[in-house]
UniProtKB/TrEMBL annotation:
This is Threonine/serine dehydratase. Keywords: Pyridoxal phosphate. Transmembrane segments: none annotated. It comes from Aquimarina gracilis. Residues 14-301 form the Tryptophan synthase beta chain-like PALP domain. Pfam families: PALP. Its cofactor is pyridoxal 5'-phosphate. The keyword Manganese does not apply. The keyword Lipid biosynthesis does not apply. InterPro entries: TrpB-like_PALP, TrpB-like_PALP_sf.
Amino acid sequence: MTPQELKDCHARIAPYIHRTPVLTSRLLNKISGAELYFKCENFQRMGAFKMRGATNAILQLSEEQKSNGVVTHSSGNFAQALSLAAKSLGIKAYIVMPSNAPKVKKDGVKEYDGEIIECEPTQHDREKTAKAIEEQKGATFLHPYNMKDVILGQGTAAIELLEDHPDLEYLFAPVGGGGLIAGTALAASFFGTNCQVIGGEPFEVDDAYRSIKSGKLEVNKTTNTIADGLKMSIGDQTFPIIKEHVKEIIRVTEDEIIASMKLIWERMKIIVEPSCSVPLAALLKEKNSFKGHKIGIILSGGNVDLNNLPFRTI
């Protein structure tokens, strides 16, 4: 992937996405000892950064492919993103979702006219069901994160943040399947000035951390994390980019994720989901290493079930 491909992607999707705001907080600057700039993808269309990659992937299809629709498997945000992107472009979207996917995210898919096909909550069943729809409907499969056009789309959030603040020294992003952090790392490499990328990852799903340590793709044996958007393992397209361009991955506990989420809600007065809170949790965990630096943080999304908040007391 090249700088020009990333620039072209940004121009291509610009009419279909929001250029999200960048917020600051004097209190969080004081707590961290650093100068923080939050790229608020929780204000993106459908509430998450994944609108960027989904839109780019659809726009790169041929007219024949578009006429037969698209299919993906996703437990949440990419499901909503692909549904809305497809609806915006007049295309049919088939969404394979595990039976235990959050209700708020299923409702979002329905609101955007995506057709939900439920499956058992295993990777094997997700892939098998999506493959069957490909064959039955002639729909084109779009991977939630492990494909070039999606990675490029996700990298456009970091492009915008670096355009607004070109002197950032670090960029923090959450790590799930790796699409966002891979795209962020490419943007920082191409358009940053000595800007290093740091990932935040839950201990409960730390396959990216272990993959970097071992030099080969590792998988998660459990997915026992509140950060439901980060449960998937990194892929064979995202891993090489992460391995080459991400400086470090910092792992955080469930309690640290909840504390970070609560801090953002209370102090910044914005809604973020647990996955979105992981980068700030990672920064605060190792704040002595980043004191005095100018840091960008990608707030990845804000789709939460308000009846199931981790700090809910009533």
